[in-house]
Write a structure and sequence with these properties.
Low-confidence stretches: none
Strand order of the largest sheet: 1-2-3-4-5-6
Helix content: 10-25%
Number of strands: 14
Number of helices: 6
CATH class: Alpha Beta
Order of helices and strands: EEEHEHEEEEEEEEHEEHHH
Distance between the termini: 46 Å
Number of domains: 1
CATH superfamily: Ribonuclease Z/Hydroxyacylglutathione hydrolase-like
Shape: globular
Largest sheet: 6 strands, mixed
Mean pLDDT: 94
CATH topology: Metallo-beta-lactamase, Chain A
Amino acid sequence: MLFRQFFDHVSSTYTYLLADDETREAALIDPVLEQAERDLEIVCQLGLTLGHVFDTHVHADHITAAARLREETGAHTVAGERGPACADVHVGDGDVVRFGRIALGVLATPGHTDDSVSYLLLDPDHAAQPGDRVFTGDALMIRAAGRTDFQNGDAGCLYDSITLKLFALPDATLVYPAHDYRGLTVTTIREEKRWNARIAGRSRDEFIAVMNALHLPEPRHLREAVDANRAGGRAPVQG
């Protein structure tokens, strides 16, 4: 499997490229509109065919490149069941999306937003078995968890998603989040169980209290980003 991790410095967003190195079929996870040209250039340079564009949720701090990439390549856009209505494919817990020999299993991980999903790489030879990595969006981050104070966020629901879904994965599973603000690039389930200050060793009620006390400022472009992302990455038409 070919794997690359890209970064957008303005929004501190990670975008992930996965491809079958035999069939050259590829997918991007959480692409950023301003970086669409970069991503398309790399896909071209590597001789890949972009077939799928995945979003983990409706982002509030950047606009997805999903619509742009679909226009340029014909790729299918993929989102959770409660995600943008315009997505080509809506996925729910337990669904599997395949491209080449690569299979991504869907984990419903709401809480940061009500549409949040994570994508679990599956073993290509034993699809019922998890592979070595999971793409968690903003649900589980490196020593953190996504805020829950807007977009139908729910701290209790996020606690359940992390502890019952993500922490149930093998400890060695690599965790690739949608953001990091300190230059960290990857973590593991084992590390987050032990070192994640927001959730490690905390009860559900304690986690809710921590999340409710964050008092973070709103993302600068919250409204425009959410509205555009609900339209798949396009600014809504003004009536």
